[in-house]
Amino acid sequence: MREKGFTIIELLVGMVLFTIVVGSAVSIFLSIIKYQRQILAEEQLLSQISYVQERASKALRMAKKQEPSDLPCIPKGYIYQLTRPEAGFYTGIKFINQSNNNACQEFILGNAVSGDSNSPLVLKELINSSNLSEAIPLTSERLEINVVKFSINGGDGCYGASCPDGAVAEGGIQPKVTVLIMVRAAESQDYPIRIFQTTVSQRNLND
After folding, report:
1. Is residue 35 part of a domain?
2. Res 163 pLDDT > 70
3. H or E element: which one contains 48?
4. Residue 1: is its pLDDT beyond 60?
5. What pLDDT is recorded for position 207?
6. Three-state secondary structure call for residue 47
7. Less CB within 10 Å around the terminal CB: N or C of the chain?
8. Contact 167/79 with Cβ under 8 angstroms?
9. Cα–Cα distance between 168 and 80 in angstroms, integer?
10. What pLDDT, in 10s, does the model give residues 68-101?
């Protein structure tokens, strides 16, 4: 009596079915990994931007008017000064932080490596200095920052040395600073661009 076996056709059909099942499983597995990586990248993005917004908001609320007796930081009588105009808007803001020993503080958008225009853009902080090499990065190179825009009272100020861009202490009005950030995780160009915006008002009125 002859033993039963598989025909070539049966083997080919089995191999095809096996290949389809394994291919589908691998595709699903890779999709899951890709999705998890995106979730982790998004979580890191949210964590870094939340940190920047909290740090900047806390400092901006404590801005004070530049008095003649203060060390030079911004124009006399000003509370905030918009700085570093790029493409029609301002990518920096400078002020005196009274909660940090009246430090002259500036938040700016700049290259991760000072002087290297090819390095990624990051948010930085300068304290009591105008030397960009001393700026401290607040975000990592794992974020791709497309736009950072600072504006005051809904406007972008004006250009020119005769018109310092910023807010003065007039009429007991608390100036409001709006910070707009457009950013995405740098890991992939397929990741969506996220937009974050926050508005902060000066805590104490000036005399």
Report:
1. no
2. no
3. helix 8-61
4. no
5. 54
6. helix
7. N
8. yes
9. 7
10. 888 899 988 889 999 988 877 889 999 999 999 9
